[in-house]
Design brief:
The chain has seven helices and nine strands; from the N terminus they run ααβββββαββββαααα. It has about 200 residues and is an alpha/beta fold. Strands 1-4-5-6-9 form a five-stranded mixed beta sheet, sandwiched between helices. Strand 4 and strand 5 form a beta hairpin. Helix 1 runs antiparallel to helix 6.
């Protein structure tokens, strides 16, 4: 089930990349998606989303990880992806972890490596977004249709009236509308809600 959440949100970001970029890093402009595969000496790892952007005229990457629930090693994983992407693309990489539902202990930024009595070796800054803490109005105010389906997972978002408003807002983009319906079916789980969705 976790993979289903992941896959749907990766598809959404892939359909409307500029909307996600504008939401997460407003001064950046999308250039292109880049390969999600990053190689170490012994293995290949895959990120959820990597976009090349122009940020104040310079090349950068936006790295997004969708995480259904917190894991204790998430900060280290994102740091590894960030370092590998930086080495592969020779530019700054801005990492965002978007948590979908509450549960577990979320490692807060920055990730710090070093012995307390000595100077720090690494300080890795990244951004955590906990959707369930985010007021719906914050997402709506962006005016970005591509991020509107995320309102279903925002604070007080798992409601029919929210879903109905989203469906109306994105009806001109059939792919985004389809994914909005799919996400609604994952958060509106009562039998009555499921019947209502079938009738929409």
């Amino acid at each position: 089930m976790v993979k289903v959440w992941d896959d749907r949100l990766k598809r959404l970001a892939g359909m409307v990349p500029q909307d996600f970029i504008k939401w997460l890093l407003p001064d950046a402009r999308l250039v292109r998606p880049v390969s999600l595969e990053l190689k170490t000496l012994t293995r290949t790892v895959s990120t959820d989303i990597l976009f090349e952007v122009r940020l104040h005229g310079k090349k950068a990457l936006v790295h997004i990880e969708f995480q259904r629930r917190a894991t204790s090693k998430m900060a280290q994983r994102v740091w590894e992806y960030n370092v590998l992407a930086t080495l592969a693309h020779h530019c700054p990489v801005y990492s965002f972890v978007i948590y979908l539902v509450p549960g577990g202990e979320i490692p807060e930024a920055p990730l710090v490596w070093g012995v307390p009595e000595c100077e720090l070796v690494h300080i890795f800054r990244y951004t955590n977004i906990k959707l369930w803490e985010l007021p719906i109005e914050v997402l709506k105010r962006t005016g970005l249709k591509g991020v509107r389906p995320l309102c279903l997972m925002a604070k007080d978002g798992a409601r029919r009236e929210v879903a109905k408003e989203i469906f109306k807002d994105v009806q001109d983009n059939k792919e985004v509308l389809g994914l909005a319906f799919s996400l609604a079916s994952m958060v509106l789980t009562s039998e009555a809600d499921q019947q209502w969705l079938e009738g929409e």
